């Protein structure tokens, strides 16, 4: 590489300084990996997965990475994070130890293992920072290739900002000039999410640069078992763009060749940034000096020849040779850098450990002093002193040691005077410490969903009864007019206005960038939404049917649902996921796997409106909040009649609030969605035999009845039936747990609380399939009647 290959204006001395600084960063990173492994093996850290062997290509990536750009990467990118100035030595080790303070571990406050990197998109109040003035990393996740769908959305945001007028780009973009950079290990390219994302990015033509770090192995499994032809760039050649076809620019470069790497990444940056063309860089001939992780040794599966080759072509060793051969440094100068790096890393490690353990030691000493005081006046002095001495003898305690000791001693003094003092200490300690591990599952800003207030739909003499889909369509029209940063996309969402015509005419009016069709690829539809929401847009990702959500459930669960939590509130993606489901015909279009969904995506709100006016109100509410949510529209409700509100875009359905849609005295019936119409019909028929049922629409499964209104109903009727079209033990089990356990509804029951759910199989095709697979009006009637028969068999004689 000549002296001006990276920056033409650099003098030789400036160039030399820059290159030697790169070598220093890489050497520090390598020392962190080496010392980090020892910290795990000596027990100070739980697990280690490091970026050794990948240092030099990450230096090249960092040189091409600009303010405003985003990374969505792989858990070996520590050198990159150091090179862009977003991670120090001490922070590296704080993450390894699991330090629960963001000031020490800004990546995740100890919530993720080391090697998972993030920058702060939000301030301490949950407000956006200026993302264009900083280098950004979206928060990593461990599932292999799980970073890929989000990467697509991060890149697509630049395309939206460049091509859609009227959006306030402040804090988020400079005319769409930002590149989204992805990294992945070669073995993980075997995952479907990788191929789905690669295809989608080629179709969308977004500014995405995908780096594949190729060291020939996936843990112990060689590339011959991972990839056809053992070469990802070779099998992706069909994606290469040409004069007649859009596609990718595909590049290959050796991972130990510093000058070629710098040149390759500069070229990739220019193509993606200026032309909005995706680029794939296959970085091959990389090594992994310490093996996959601290869980094993690569000597077990690499032969002597491979190990010898890795020693020779270690990227740091090759960079060292290049520096000397090109008269950029002497061996002695590099040795001095190496020595200083070892010293700096050791000092940083010690500082991180001291910062981690000293607060815990102070808590240990505080409890020891309290227990000694309590023991002095206790009949169980001997036993308390044993616990106290055991705790005091731990040289490097963890908080589990402290709280476990306190709780065990509490049992010994439950009838003594010291109980109140120790109980108060445990309560205060738990209130102080528990948030370090449990905060920010949801937004704690003033824009959280619970801060939104209900606004009722308004009607006047001109309000007509219309097909319910028109309420949605007209409300979307107002949303797109009112919120230029809002866009919607999915299968059949664009040209035909979605399969149920809830978006009829919207693409023609607002353009293909804002109302867009997408391929049959649910996971990356979700990923588009996540990435764009992380960059300040307000996307609505449409999954055609609720059954198809299962294709995307992993991305929802592992990435979107955990985002606020795993960054301790410093990143967010207020994505709205739109789908339709519940009762229809056939195995594949009538599923209601709500139990699976609500238990997999804690961190995302799950909203189940009974009609389209309620659904429209949820969209209006969510667009004024900063949290992600899933809205399940009733698939059989689009052609039913509803009145057209006069305040479209303004009325808001409250989240976490139930609605009593019929008052009653004898029993509380709880349900949601399409099944409510059957419950209402059954209630009318029950009145004919003298049973007065109260009906409550849940509306929101997550959060669930924040005002505890259902238990107030149960206190009045003393009986409870939950009706749900999920499988037995699905959502009905969750609903019952919330009412009986969380709301303490058991105190008011005179009868056994019961549930009525579907059969444990998918619904068979046809109307009869629905009737015999899911709760019917007759099922609901007879279930309630049987419960009342138990109460008064004379008044309600047995039907069977």
UniProtKB/TrEMBL annotation:
<dbReference type="InterPro" id="IPR009014">
    <property type="entry name" value="Transketo_C/PFOR_II"/>
</dbReference>
<dbReference type="InterPro" id="IPR005475">
    <property type="entry name" value="Transketolase-like_Pyr-bd"/>
</dbReference>
<dbReference type="GO" id="GO:0007584">
    <property type="term" value="P:response to nutrient"/>
</dbReference>
<dbReference type="Pfam" id="PF02779">
    <property type="entry name" value="Transket_pyr"/>
</dbReference>
<protein>
    <recommendedName>
        <fullName>3-methyl-2-oxobutanoate dehydrogenase (2-methylpropanoyl-transferring)</fullName>
        <ecNumber>1.2.4.4</ecNumber>
    </recommendedName>
</protein>
<dbReference type="Pfam" id="PF02780">
    <property type="entry name" value="Transketolase_C"/>
</dbReference>
<feature type="domain" description="Transketolase-like pyrimidine-binding">
    <location>
        <begin position="466"/>
        <end position="640"/>
    </location>
</feature>
<keyword id="KW-0670">Pyruvate</keyword>
<dbReference type="InterPro" id="IPR033248">
    <property type="entry name" value="Transketolase_C"/>
</dbReference>
<dbReference type="Pfam" id="PF00676">
    <property type="entry name" value="E1_dh"/>
</dbReference>
<keyword id="KW-0560">Oxidoreductase</keyword>
<dbReference type="InterPro" id="IPR001017">
    <property type="entry name" value="DH_E1"/>
</dbReference>
<dbReference type="InterPro" id="IPR029061">
    <property type="entry name" value="THDP-binding"/>
</dbReference>
<keyword id="KW-0786">Thiamine pyrophosphate</keyword>
<comment type="function">
    <text>E1 component of the 2-oxoglutarate dehydrogenase (OGDH) complex which catalyzes the decarboxylation of 2-oxoglutarate, the first step in the conversion of 2-oxoglutarate to succinyl-CoA and CO(2).</text>
</comment>
<dbReference type="GO" id="GO:0009083">
    <property type="term" value="P:branched-chain amino acid catabolic process"/>
</dbReference>
<dbReference type="GO" id="GO:0003863">
    <property type="term" value="F:branched-chain 2-oxo acid dehydrogenase activity"/>
</dbReference>
């Amino acid at each position: 590489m000549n002296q001006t290959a990276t920056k033409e204006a650099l003098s030789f001395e400036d160039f030399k300084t820059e290159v030697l600084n790169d070598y220093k960063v890489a050497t520090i990173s390598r020392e962190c990996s080496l010392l980090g492994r020892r910290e795990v093996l000596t027990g100070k850290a739980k697990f280690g997965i490091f970026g050794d062997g990948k240092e030099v290509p990450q230096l090249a990536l960092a040189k091409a990475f600009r303010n405003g750009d985003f990374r969505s990467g792989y858990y070996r990118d520590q050198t990159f994070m150091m090179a862009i100035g977003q991670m120090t030595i001490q922070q590296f080790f704080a993450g390894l130890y699991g330090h629960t303070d963001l000031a020490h571990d800004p990546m995740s406050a100890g919530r993720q293992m080391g090697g998972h990197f993030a920058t702060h998109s939000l301030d301490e109040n949950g407000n956006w920072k200026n993302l264009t003035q900083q280098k950004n990393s979206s928060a990593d996740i461990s599932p292999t290739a799980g970073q890929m769908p989000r990467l697509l959305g991060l890149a697509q945001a630049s395309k939206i900002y460049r091509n859609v007028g009227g959006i306030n780009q402040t804090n988020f973009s400079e005319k769409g000039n930002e590149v989204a950079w992805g990294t992945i290990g070669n073995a993980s390219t075997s995952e479907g999410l990788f191929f789905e994302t690669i295809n989608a990015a080629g179709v969308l033509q977004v500014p995405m640069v995908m780096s594949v770090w190729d060291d020939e192995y996936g843990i112990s499994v060689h590339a011959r078992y991972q990839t056809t032809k053992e070469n990802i760039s070779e099998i992706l050649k069909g994606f290469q763009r040409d004069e007649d076809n859009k596609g990718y620019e595909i590049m290959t470069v050796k991972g130990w060749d510093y000058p070629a790497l710098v040149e390759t990444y500069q070229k990739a940056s220019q193509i993606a940034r200026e032309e909005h063309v995706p680029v794939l860089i296959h970085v091959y001939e990389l090594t992994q000096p310490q093996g996959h992780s601290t869980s094993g040794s690569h000597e077990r599966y690499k032969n002597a020849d491979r190990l010898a080759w890795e020693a020779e072509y270690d990227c740091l060793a090759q960079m060292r040779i290049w520096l000397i051969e090109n008269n950029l440094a002497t061996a002695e100068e590099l040795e001095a850098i190496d020595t200083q790096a070892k010293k700096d890393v050791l000092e940083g490690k010690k500082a991180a450990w001291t910062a981690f353990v000293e607060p815990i030691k102070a808590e240990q000493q505080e409890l020891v002093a309290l227990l000694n005081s309590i023991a002095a006046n206790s009949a169980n002095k001997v036993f308390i002193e044993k616990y106290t001495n055991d705790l005091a003898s731990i040289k490097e305690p963890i908080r589990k040691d402290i709280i476990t000791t306190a709780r065990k001693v509490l049992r010994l003094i439950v009838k003594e005077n010291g109980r109140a003092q120790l109980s108060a200490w445990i309560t205060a300690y738990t209130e102080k410490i528990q948030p370090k591990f449990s905060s920010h599952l949801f937004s704690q800003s003033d824009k959280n969903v619970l801060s939104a207030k209900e606004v009722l739909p308004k009607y006047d003499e001109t309000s007509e009864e219309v097909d319910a889909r028109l309420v949605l369509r007209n409300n979307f029209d107002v949303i797109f007019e009112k919120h230029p940063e809002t866009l919607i996309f999915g299968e059949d969402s664009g040209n035909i206005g979605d399969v149920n015509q809830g978006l009829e005419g919207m693409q023609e009016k607002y353009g293909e960038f804002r109302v867009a069709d997408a391929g049959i690829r649910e996971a990356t539809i979700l990923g588009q939404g996540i990435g764009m929401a992380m960059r300040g847009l307000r996307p609505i990702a449409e999954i055609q049917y609720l059954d198809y959500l299962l294709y995307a459930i992993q991305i929802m669960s592992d990435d979107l649902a955990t985002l606020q939590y795993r960054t301790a509130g410093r990143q967010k993606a207020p994505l709205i996921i739109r789908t339709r489901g519940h009762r229809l015909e056939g195995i594949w279009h009538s599923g209601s796997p709500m139990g699976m969904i609500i238990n997999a995506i804690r961190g995302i709100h799950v909203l189940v409106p009974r009609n389209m006016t309620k659904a429209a109100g949820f969209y209006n509410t969510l667009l004024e909040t900063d949290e992600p949510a899933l809205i399940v529209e009733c698939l059989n409700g689009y052609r039913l009649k509803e009145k057209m509100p006069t305040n479209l875009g303004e009325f808001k359905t409250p989240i976490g609030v139930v609605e009593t849609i019929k008052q009653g005295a004898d029993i509380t019936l709880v349900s949601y969605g399409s099944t409510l119409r059957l419950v209402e019909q059954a209630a009318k028929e029950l009145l004919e035999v003298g049973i007065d049922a109260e009906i409550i629409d849940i509306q929101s499964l997550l959060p669930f009845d924040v005002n505890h209104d259902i238990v107030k109903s149960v206190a009045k009727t003393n009986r409870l039936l939950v009706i749900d079209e999920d499988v037995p033990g699905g959502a009905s089990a969750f609903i019952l747990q919330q009412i009986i356990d969380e709301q303490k509804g058991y105190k008011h029951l005179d009868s056994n609380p019961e549930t009525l759910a579907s059969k444990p199989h998918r619904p068979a095709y046809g109307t009869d399939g629905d009737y015999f697979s899911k709760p019917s009006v007759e099922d609901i009637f007879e279930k309630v009647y049987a419960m009342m028969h138990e109460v008064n068999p004379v008044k309600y004689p047995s039907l069977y």
